[in-house]
Specification:
Layout (H helix, E strand, L loop, with lengths): L3 H4 L4 H12 L5 H8 L3 H13 L19 E9 L4 H11 L5 E6 L6 E7 L2 H12 L5 E8 L10
Antiparallel strand pairs: 1-3, 1-4, 2-3
């Protein structure tokens, strides 16, 4: 999550602030200060510093995938035909534009990227794979693993 030297600059109050906000990013500064054991002003000052220094990147809503009809999750392994820097940059830029791709990770191993793809159903996934993912720059082949049950998922 954080580099060791950066994390070393944080004390237990900073860590508690980030932990509390990762569970509920909408809580008021007053509630946050109560949870971490600080008065409001020092808590607010620390929160601003954590945001300004890039420890907290932002706040977002956690969406209900089932209510949105987006329960189908597949993990897609992607092998590229070219792994030179220019090809990687082109792939990265293009994959960021596919809304169904929730996560994209470069992997060290038998394939180059692992994508987490969320769609409404297997038919929609097949279209995304065939029309979007397979046509990304330098894609040589893909392999898909369909999720049967999400045991822990902090995405969306």
């Amino acid at each position: 999550m954080m580099k060791a030297q950066e994390a070393g600059d944080l004390d237990h109050f900073d860590m508690r602030i980030m932990e509390a906000l990762s569970e509920d990013g909408r809580m008021s500064v007053l509630e946050l200060s109560r949870r971490v054991g600080l008065s409001k002003t020092p808590c607010q000052t620390r929160l601003k510093r954590l945001v300004d220094e890039g420890y907290i990147l932002g706040f977002r809503a956690s969406l209900n995938a089932a209510k949105l009809g987006l329960e189908h999750i597949a993990f897609t392994e992607v092998k590229l035909s070219d792994t030179r820097e220019k090809a990687l940059d082109e792939f990265n830029a293009a994959v960021r534009k596919i809304k169904e791709v929730e996560e994209c990770h470069m992997i060290a191993g038998a394939f180059d990227y692992l994508l987490k793809v969320r769609t409404t159903d297997i038919r929609k996934y097949r279209r995304v794979l065939g029309e979007k993912i397979s046509s990304l720059p330098s894609v040589a082949n893909t392999s898909t693993f369909v999720v049967m049950e999400s045991v822990k998922d902090t995405g969306m």
